[in-house]
Amino acid sequence: MSKIEIYGTIGPACAEQKILEEMFCLGMTGIRLNLSHVELEECREWTKMIQAASNAAGIQPKLLIDLQGPELRIGNLKRPLELAEGKTVILKSKEAFSPMEGQPLEASRGKTGFFYHSENSDAEEISLPEVVIASLQTGQEILLDDGKIHLVVIKVTGNDVGCQVIRGGVLQSRKSVALPGVAINLPVLTDSDRRNIRRAKDHGVTGVMLPFVRSAEDIKELRQELYRADAESLEIFAKIENMDGVEHLEELLPFADQIVIARGDLGNSMPLWKLPTIQARIAKTCQKAGKPFMVVTQMLASMEKHPVPTRAEMSDIFLAVLEGAASVMVTGETAVGKYPQEVIRYLSNGVKAANDEKI
Length: 359
What we know:
By secondary structure, this protein is α/β, with parallel strands linked by helices.
């Protein structure tokens, strides 16, 4: 039986050679570098560190870059924003923004995004692509930060769009935006993606993760870009993150090297209780076609703050292996969590236990 790959994600919590070396020694076989917020060339120190740590551990790791792709994200914020549950957030055109004294608006909308206001503070822009702004209608849900924050459009009057905060929270820069039920046509690759692909081999990258794959055409475009960059040897990991990808799964299988069941945004496109069924459906389709697949998102989420996982998380790892996963990955758990080494220890041991049972 082939070895199941164990992927971590590099970030501030584990960006030290000794920590990375220990993670490799504990069973990590590959690592993901998220390029949603940064250019690959800016991560030269990290990619050198990964190579040095893996050499010290005596392994040759797989390094995946996660592209921006056709993903919606807010822009950079001057500071984190508290969006309180039950509040009404007003979205207005920038030109119409002129709050009356003593009645500060909590937010307004411009051509490129939201503007957040609170008393005794300056305007704070939450930039969004124009295609998102144009898609807002009464009743439309807006999910921010993998669904952690939930808004609903309650009224549209001319340039004014009122949203109620259904589920609040602290909003940070560059978090994801999802509009359930709305298909937005975005380019497969950004200019940043193309630059990063051209530099990938120089950094030791072995694979490319393409977010929000919608059809075989998306993967074909990435494949062409890899050829143009003389990087055709890199593997393509197609992230299934919406129902378009689920519905076109069989047609895109021949063009991807591995399918990624990316449960974060995928879970935003349906009621969460349906997500396990969709995961099982993707896994079954991949197994039938002989296509390797990866399971990712919140596998050990509680370990961002705690040194021991929940029983449910260990069961999740076990079931992913039994469903036939070729690889599993953690993200924030190692990138920003308090216990990156322990995360890999539990993940690796959980995979081994499940694989032994499977055998």
